[in-house]
Amino acid sequence: RKEVEQDPGPFNVPEGATVAFNCTYSNSASQSFFWYRQDCRKEPKLLMSVYSSGNEDGRFTAQLNRASQYISLLIRDSKLSDSATYLCVVNMSAVGGADGLTFGKGTHLIIQP
Amino acid sequence: DVKVTQSSRYLVKRTGEKVFLECVQDMDHENMFWYRQDPGLGLRLIYFSYDVKMKEKGDIPEGYSVSREKKERFSLILESASTNQTSMYLCASSSGQGGYGYTFGSGTRLTVV
Residues in chain A whose beta carbon is closer than 8 A to a beta carbon of chain B? Predict the structure, then answer.
């Protein structure tokens, strides 16, 4: 069974704090990994890809642990505008293919002033 | 700026009506997808297509059909709308084998009364 698990939250975090989410996936043959951000009543948008060596983009850092089958997202110096739902996305198809991406249900983050 | 365009942002239809949701992408992507998103259930794949005139069932195809006559256009059809099809419908497209993630349209919020 294809599965991507996330803590739904909500995570209530004060502005300026550091927050981290984890996501676990069931298929060890998964090839590519992403974090998407979804604002309320909007479509999901790609936040960043997750590489084996880790990936950093400004205040955001994503890491992959293949041995334990989880990926993580770290947000430093959080801003009010970071409030959103963060979706963990995994390509679980062993040979790729159009149906490969599996979406987690998302982690809801609320940054409080 | 690359785009996936969904024809309607909000739609209200009556039970039993035939409903067409249109999606057009301008990125020359091979793969196109229809999802529905409901609170607590996350994104669920209805149908996808990896080529013109090709279609594959996703996780929840019952009550839906699709059409892909041209590469850029992927239509979702509700043959006889029912109240349990009230949802947010999201179209997405991707290139190749999903290694670059998906681009989503802005969604159609369908209410069936």
Answer: 31-32, 34, 36, 41-46, 49, 87, 89, 91, 93, 95-101, 103-106
